[in-house]
Amino acid sequence: MAKYIIKRLFYAVFVLFGVATIVFFLTRLTGDPIAIMLPDGATDEQVAELTAALGLDKPLLEQYFIYLSDLLRLNFGESLRYRSPTLGLILERLPATLRLAGTAMLFALLLAVPCGILAALKRGTAADQGIMALVMAGQAMPVFWAGILMIMLFAVQMKWLPTGGYGDGGLRYIILPAIALGLHLMALVTRLLRSSLIEVMGADYIRTAKAKGLRAKLVVAKHALRNSMLPVVTVVGLQMGALLGGSVVTETVFAWPGVGQLLVQAITYRDFPLVQACITMLAAVFVFVNLAVDIIYVFVDPRISYS
Amino acid sequence: MRKAIKRHMGSAVAWGALGILVVFAVCSLLAPVLTPYEANAQDIMNRLVPPAWCAGGSLEHLLGTDELGRDMLARLLYGSRSSILVGVLTAMLSGGLGVTLGLLSGYFPKADAVIMRIADIQLAFPSMLLALAIVAVLGGGFFKLVMVLGITGWVSFSRVIRSEVLSIRTSDYILAAQTVGVGQARILFRHILPNIIAPAVTISTFQIATAIISESSLSFLGLGIPPTTPTWGNMLHAGQLYMDSAWWISLFPGICIMLIVLSINLLGDVLRDYMDPKTRQN
User: Please, which pLDDT band fits residue A33 given cuts at 50, 70 and 90?
Assistant: First the structure.
């Protein structure tokens, strides 16, 4: 198993290298990034100064190697807008993003698991149909619109919760953004768990468990649920990427001071080094989450051999 | 498609979904006939007029007006054009790209190694993030957006198509074709391609829905289609500032997005069930 984990670790490094390469060449795609970064009517001296400061006067391949060696030393460059190292800016805001994504995931799972089980066990009943209708609606709702609706209802109309911001970091501030962000995942997991559980409940070993007189609750909890959780674990890992992507939008709607909001501002202000660093960092977080999921898998599913 | 829907005759949901899509398609085509207003015609004297059924509303603006006095209904109708077009064009682009790469990947082991590694790396980017990265470099705009969303969407096609091709490649009729000396291009496009159209069509429907949501999200962030073009995402972007005073600006475009995405997803489910031999037998 250690061998498998090491193999996955190497693979994660390879993917990160690929991510860094794509980001590098993507930001050079424009041909002349300086023209995009500087306002119209910039003088020739300003152009020359910025070109030299960013090392853009060197050959492309040399720039690429400098970029890679900088990355290895965790030097992500300096933000044009804030005039400070981008890594510091991101690390300052990363906890807020991770907290939001984590809470969203927690909310999604806490709601999806009971809903999925209920829908599967009461298949075809009004409860099942009601849950599935809500799930379909949740999947069709864009994250930001769910956020807007909740702000209009719970913050503007009822004044129960704040409209946005981080405040004192209290629970009141995270409830709405976490629900908005987690809604889609909640719908997806409910649907997946329902179909997975329905399939497992038809398996021979479930019939055996029932036949030997095991109580229905125990059959579900000990035999069926554990096996139907496998696809859920996979999807939850993969959906972490969607959560990080969705956090960009959610953070903007709720003025949540995370990396997503920083990224959108950086794009608006044409702060290229910061855009580059934000995207690389968020992708890196995603790669490591997937690595963690792969490792968790070893423990969840003893059938798979990892030699 | 007709058979698929026929099989679900009992399912009012599928018909409802199809009906909603037809209504959206007709509305987007007949927008100039259905509303006397231009989508961008401003009327500052009549700004933030509520919908007709609310106090202060008027029948002249059935769904009210926005912050510049533009008719909401007209903007929704014209906005549907951008959303539908972005969705369909994106699905075509990512479908074309994904199916071609999936075919190559499934048929030629050497190409497979390269294409699937690229796919792995691309999957390391949350798709929204990749779209943002490209938009940050290239800027917004209709065709750029289609290109961006098309590029971010190819992986979901190529992965499925690849696995389909892998299983078809070893079937007897392909071996027979190879034995009698049929060229590789002909085998790929005449013998394998027709067999993978079904899953490709199914993925396309979901891709249209995803693209519509992505377009509206990027436009909402102010990074998608320029605000001069009415799109549902742009309308929601503008409505943000008036959430406490003019709820209708934020409500109606969202309902449109949700309805169209919901309908496409439901139809996609029906198509998938029909085209999947495992569920078709039941």
Answer: low
The CATH number given to whatever domain includes residue B30 is: 1.10.3720.10
Task: With CB atoms and an 8 Å threshold, state whether B137 touches A27.
Answer: yes
pTM equals 0.86
Report the residue from B136, B247, B266 with minimal CB separation from A152: B247
| Residue of A21, A148, A157, A250 to mutate, interface with B, max B Cβ within 10 Å | A148
Q: Is the pLDDT of residue B2 over 70?
A: no
Contacts of B217 in chain A (CB under 8 A): 142-144, 249
Residue range B41-63, pLDDT digits in tens: 888 888 888 888 888 878 888 88
Domain spans of chain A, in order of start: 86-300
User: How many domains does one find in chain B?
Assistant: 1
Q: Does domain A86-300 have CATH number 3.40.190.10?
A: no
Residues in A touching B251 (Cβ below 8 Å): 149, 152
Mean pLDDT value of segment B255-267 = 92
Distance from CA of A235 to the nearest CA of B (A): 13
Contact B128 A156 (CB under 8 A): no
Mapping DSSP onto H, E and C, the string for chain A reads CHHHHHHHHHHHHHHHHHHHHHHHHHHCCCCCHHHHHCCCCCCHHHHHHHHHHCCCCCCHHHHHHHHHHHHHCCCCCECCCCCCEHHHHHHHHHHHHHHHHHHHHHHHHHHHHHHHHHHHHCCCCHHHHHHHHHHHHHHHCCHHHHHHHHHHHHHHHCCCCCCCCCCCCCHHHHHHHHHHHHHHHHHHHHHHHHHHHHHHHCCHHHHHHHHCCCCHHHHHHHHHHHHHHHHHHHHHHHHHHHHHHHHHHHHHHCCCCCHHHHHHHHHHCCCHHHHHHHHHHHHHHHHHHHHHHHHHHHHHCCCCCCC
